[in-house]
Amino acid sequence: MAKENQNAQTLCYENKNRFAELEEKERKKLFEFCEDYRKFISNAKTEREFCDDACRVLESNGFVPLEDKAKLKAGDKIYTVNRGKGVIAAVIGTEEIENGINLVGAHIDSPRLDLKPNPLFEEQSMAYFKTHYYGGIKKYQWTAIPLAIHGIAALQDGTQIKIIIGEEENDPVFCVTDLLPHLAQDQMTKKMSEAIPGESLNVLLGNLCCDDPDVKEGVKYNILKLLNEKYDIQEEDLLSSEIEVVPAFGARDLGFDRTMIAGYGQDDRVCAYTALRAVLDVKKPAKTAVCLLVDKEEVGSMGATGMQSRHFENVMARICAKIVKNYSDLVLREMLCNSTCLSADVGAALDPNYPEVTEKKNSAMINCGIMLTKYTGSRGKGGASDASAEVVAKIRKIFNEHQVEWQIGELGKVDAGGGGTIAQFVANLDMDVIDAGVPLLSMHSPFEVAGKLDIYMTYKGYREFYLNN
User: Fold this and answer.
1) Is residue 251 within 8 Å of 41, Cβ to Cβ?
2) Burial class (CB in 10 A: 0-12, 13-18, 19+), 182
3) Cα 284 vs. chain centroid, distance in angstroms?
């Protein structure tokens, strides 16, 4: 019987919670790592803020701007910024760049409320900001919660005014109001997707009217006066601003046992942070290690800061040209097709409260390790990047040989829905790619949930991929 049991353990694959298998030393490292992560994402709530904080971390660990280097050699650590909303960091390897790179690519934008171009208005002596929601949200989740305002106003002279209101203990917060149950009879009969219209996501700002009775819209004027006193901006400056409304609370430990973290923006800053920390551990790799942090994934990876732009290719061409003596475009093309990418994005964790949308045998679970997702897409794998068996086997081997706890899963039942990542756009560059990241509960909500073991194993998985592929 003992022999058969041993054979069964060898032959069968089982997905299970891995906390009990951790040694005390590694468990301590895990909790320390996750505390650093919790603090980081509590402060970096927008793509610009994440980009700024990432650059500070990179510079403190010896990375220098790519523009400062005329030539590159093995061991050099460089980074470059894309319009304040994306970062590419690299550690140059000892192998020829044409042999390919090890790329970990994540996105640093998250679902939120964006201010409309002309946002400020007054109605019935109440001042509001009009918003246009960004990414896939459940609109009702954004009502009746404390909100903060983050962003920049770009002035005509080129000055950027940074705005953050709602994060300090003595700051005011803001909110989108909701109907009281007593008057919500009609609202409660609507579909959840229709109960809160997008045009009703107006952020309440204030109610105090200015002293001058001749001023029209005195409450709006008073808000503008307060903004002008604090930030020296006028209403027209809001037309050239990028201001986001996000939850006004930080990430917190979740559960009596503190084995999870709940907070805003973990899709996909949990993978961005772990990728960033992993590349810091790389000294002089065989293959060049690249950490790619992009914007706009939540709206299709469009635009100059999204994965569909040519920015990544352009930066890699510049890197190749600083390494290869007789550079040509063929060097870049050979490098891309010989490279492997971990598309560092979150996945859907099995939620026992909603078992009907997942297929248990092919679902990731909290604290069972980094999640590999062979394909994404929806309804017949539409829009998917489907990793080959060879790629899955290669990553499996790295993780198993270096004690990285991992699991595999898909995004819900067939025909239940679906989604995508930057993987398909990386694959369009003729590069092998597979999704690998942290499974989440309550994804795209203002309070997403991640397992600490999964966070740590994702960092460890990216690091071992950089060092051993």
Assistant:
1) yes
2) exposed
3) 27
CA distance 306 to 302: 5
Cα–Cα distances in Å, from 259 out to 44, 253, 354, 365, 449?
22, 7, 21, 13, 10
Domains and CATH numbers, the chain: 12-110+264-468 (3.40.630.10), 112-247 (2.30.250.10)
Q: How far apart are the first and last CA of the chain?
A: 39
Q: 338 CB contacts (<8 Å, ≥6 apart)?
A: 98, 99, 100
pLDDT tens digits along 94-152: 999 999 999 999 999 999 999 999 999 999 999 999 999 999 999 999 999 999 999 99
384 CB neighbour count, 10 Å cutoff: 23
Cβ neighbours around 85 below 10 Å, total: 22
Q: State pTM to two decimals.
A: 0.95
pLDDT, tens digit, 9 for 90 and up, residues 57-72: 999 999 999 999 999 9
